[in-house]
Every structure is written in structure tokens, then in C-alpha cells.
Amino acid sequence: MQHEDVSQIIFYALIITSLWSLESLICAASSNHKWRHTFVNAGFIFTALPIQLTMTGFVIIIMKWTNIHHWGLIYYIPKHQISWVYYVSLFMLMDLGEYTYHVIMHKYDFLWRFHLVHHSDLKIDVSTTVREHPGETCVRTTFLMFWVFIFGPGIGVLMLRQVFQSFFNVLAHTEFRLPEKINNIVGFVFITPNLHHVHHHYQLPYTNSNYGDVLSIWDRIFGTYRELQSSHTKFGIDTHMEPALNSRYLSIIKIPFQKFKRPETHTSFHSSLHEEQV
């Protein structure tokens, strides 16, 4: 196991544990219900971690090759030798890559089958962060290999990127929401819990919005940015709303291999919501 992997796991665990504890203290859910929900989602750690660690080794191999051969888009960016240009450019390129990966997972039925496991959670809290089907873990890490090969980041960029990604990914799935004025400022650049909660709304078109990983600017640029009041936000995915299905690990893990149904757009429903917000 790489030293970087150990550091990443420890950092990730500390963030999740700290925010989970805060949720338990501040939010209204009963402790028994929260523990049951966390226990179900925590099962995905035991499938994701071995895959993640194994495939990260290939990410490092690709990274070393690109660095030795000066391969990647970064070498075509003017003044990339300047430290801040190098780090900022690669950070944004890698974040754009994650945005692209996320959009693809929603647009192609075969990939969506695996990604909807994450969306099927009927309650969003910190534990939802780790609710990822092992099939998606493979796909996500394969995309990471591709972005590393295309962009050519060094280990410093990857580690910095992982720190920011871990923090924002966990924070986005918390039960907390920022005050509206603060969210308007922070959310102009970064993904906030308020914005990511919209992405977890159970119906289209909101499910296909706010794909950003760390930065929200890509959603604004590519027209996938949406807002929705918390009172109108309902978590889950409309094709898999059965509590019994979503509360058992073995049932959830089988979702990609069951009869498939695409979510439907509820135009009239969302039109009325828009009118209320205006």
C-alpha cells in the first residue's frame, strides 16, 4: 500500500467521523435510525476499498510514465513551469474530468445502473458518501487513470486534489445546509450541500443537474446548474423508492442487475415548483 493511500484513508475517515458525529448531535433523526442507515451504507466500504487501493496502483504507474515522458495537456499550457499555473491548471482540468465522468454515468444506461445505487438512498447524510457500487468504483477509478494519462499531473497535484475532493464530497452529503446568503456566495464557485441536495432530488430534471465535484462553475458553463428549495427536495430516485429495497445491503448491491427502468421527467410538477420559487 502506498504511503499516499494510507494518508488519504486516514484523512477521509477523520472527515466522515467528525461530520457524522456533528449530524448525530445537531440533526433531528433518532440515533437508532441513523445507526441502521449508516450500517447499511458502511457495507460498501468493504467492497470499494480493495478495488480502490488496487487500481490506485495503476494510477500511480500511469502518473510516473506521463511525468517521465512529459506527456499530457499540461505541457501545452503557456507558462506551466510556474508553480501556481501548474497547480491551478491541473486542478481545474482534473475537476472538469470528474464533472465529465459524472455526466457520463447519468447519460448511459449501462453505467447509470451502477450509479443509481448511490442515488437510491432515501436519506442523505455523511454515510451516503460511501454508498457506491463496486462496479462504479471500477469505472470511476478507470476514468481517473484516463484523466491522469490525458492531463499529466504529478503526485503533488493528485494529493492536493484528493484532499479537496474528499472534503467537498463528504461535506456535500451532510444533512447540514448553508444559510441562503452564504450559499449564494460560496456556491457561486464551489459545490455546497445545498446544491448537491438538488442533485439527489428523486425526480428529473433535478437528478441530472449540479454534477460538479469540487467546483460548481462547470454546471454554470454547461447549463446543468439548478436550484431547489429544501422544502421541495425529496431524496432518492423515483424508480427505486421502496424503503425495504433501500435498507438492505444485499438488495441494494443487486440493483444494477434487475429489471431496468429510466427515471421520467415530471414536467407539470416541476413547472409548478418553478412558479412557486419565482
What does this structure look like?
60% of the residues lie in helices and 0% in strands. It is an all-alpha fold and 278 residues long. The chain has a domain at 3-175 and 252-270. The longest helix is centred in the middle third of the chain and has 25 residues, at 83-107. The chain is globular, with a radius of gyration of 19 Å. The termini are far apart.
Helical stretch count? 12
The overall average pLDDT, rounded, is 86
The secondary structure category is mainly alpha
Q: First CA to last CA: what distance? A: 53 Å
The residue ranges in which pLDDT falls below 50 over 5 or more consecutive positions are 267-278
Describe, in short, the structure shown:
This protein has 278 residues and is mainly alpha-helical.
Secondary-structure blueprint:
Layout: H1 3-26, H2 31-42, H3 45-68, H4 83-107, H5 109-119, H6 134-151, H7 155-172, H8 180-186, H9 193-199, H10 217-222, H11 249-253, H12 267-277
Helix pairs in contact: 1-7, 3-6, 4-5, 4-6, 4-7
List keywords for this structure.
single chain; 278 residues; mainly alpha; disordered C terminus
